[in-house]
Input
Amino acid sequence: MTRIESPCVACCKLDEQDVCQGCYRTLAEIANWNRRTEAEKADILARLPARAEAYRREAEGPTHAITRQAVLAVKEH
Output
């Protein structure tokens, strides 16, 4: 299987549910991306279009920047 690259678009802002408004991954998915298998990454990527569409339909809410502390808090060991 080909190596799956991160879908990051360098527009990192988390909403109230800790979903990035740039790539639509959750904070846990972002923090643990490099620990995922290629199959797990493919599964995450497959869910992103529907997640993005759902967020576009909702009213825009407050967002906050991703911090190193937040990433470390959800990172799997």
Residues 13-74 form one domain. DSSP finds three helices and two strands in the chain. Strands lie at 13-14, 64-65.
